[in-house]
Amino acid sequence: MAWHRRFRHAWPKLKGRYPETFRRMWEYYLLSCAGAFRARSNQLWQIVMTKPGTPQPASRQT
What we know:
- The protein is mainly α.
- It has two helices and no strands.
- The chain has a domain at 2-39.
- The longest helix has 20 residues, at 20-39.
């Protein structure tokens, strides 16, 4: 919720550079994150796809 409060506080300075649809989508994202944090139900998945025969990135080799 702190992220959302800071965004709302900063919006008057930003609104000349971004459309209203950006504000609504960003608020939806921030509030969705807040809900997931409160529910303790969020997960992070990272999928690295490579072509067959291509080595995996060094950080993913086991």
